[in-house]
Amino acid sequence: AADLRRIVVDPILYGTLRELGLAALAEITAFEYMLARVAGRIARALARHRGLAPAALEWFTHHSEVDIRHAEEGLANLEAYLRYYEFPEAEALTIVEMTLRENVFVKRYFGALAAQGAREITG
Fold first, then answer.
1. What is the rounded CA–CA span in Å between residue 117 and residue 123?
2. What is the pTM of this model?
């Protein structure tokens, strides 16, 4: 409930729902793209270094396969969204860069404190 309230009342970075939609679609597509490429490696590392059984790694192995298609669909959806809302290239690039300027994966899934630690590590 607190998260939903924060989402509704906190100011947003983007001036229009058109821009917010592009930002959300870019973040989701980036996550699918990243997960498609690293989930299998994460599963192998957890099996090798932590001895986890295949059943425990099912989420990772499943996503290493299905997110390839999701990422491809996401890229196609991004193209369609950009065309439909007639984004000039420079405006679209600015919004995507603003959206992905921080490690959105760490921030969204592990919280602001983890994101701060990631910034300190990477400079």
1. 10
2. 0.74
